[in-house]
Known about the structure:
It comes from Aspergillus chevalieri (Eurotium chevalieri). This is C6 transcription factor. This protein is mainly α and 222 residues long. It has a domain at 9-32 and 52-151. It is 47% helix and 0% strand. Helix 1 (9-26) packs parallel to helix 3 (88-105), helix 3 runs antiparallel to helix 4 (109-130) and helix 4 (109-130) runs parallel beside helix 6. The longest helix is centred in the middle third of the chain and has 22 residues, at 109-130. The two termini are 19 Å apart.
Amino acid sequence: MSETGEIDELMFQAHLLIHVSTIGVHRPLSALKFNAVENVSSCAREPPLDTPTPDLVNVHTLRVLRAIEAQIRLLALPVRQFHHTPFTTCMVSEGMLALLSACSAILKERDLATARDQIRMTLGCLKVLGEVWPRTARNVREIQTIAQCVLGLGCVATGGSTPKPSEHPSLGGEGACLDFSTSGLPGSNIDMIASIGSIEDLCGWYNPGNLDDIPWGVSDGL
């Protein structure tokens, strides 16, 4: 970032690429397991065919979490508006999928609350891009769907199969959005879903009529 608050977009993309590459290399060897429902995301990578447990699993897990944190710090740079290329979408989304896995498997209490705020902020940033790029708006809905299943709100897949993005009801049809019901959930998961669902109009439909009024999308308290 320059002294005037301007971001070098090429360097921004380069750093995101480094971090998503780190996530891609280390996640298969970490404790952050792949969930079958991640196939809903068009940005998801293929899980490894075999998942041996390495001796340094905690090292790999920590490297993934640090790469996710670095991505989020890039998104939180204090610029007035979140204006970036659509190539940001999948690089950030892969980090979010890994963070959701961490929320489900290893994060607790204060760390889980922090991750909740980070997911909330990131979805807000992607929502801003979704105002211009329908592809990004669809990806926001995909992440919502995955969060619903990973965090125990009930998976839409039946018989061991995972629906493709085009097959899932929340990813198509005008005005479709997830119902974040919280009955029967542990308190930490309820808080997390409440934070995700509290972003106004997370579905992020394509609306080119009010681009001058786009907010940055960063929540308070990160």
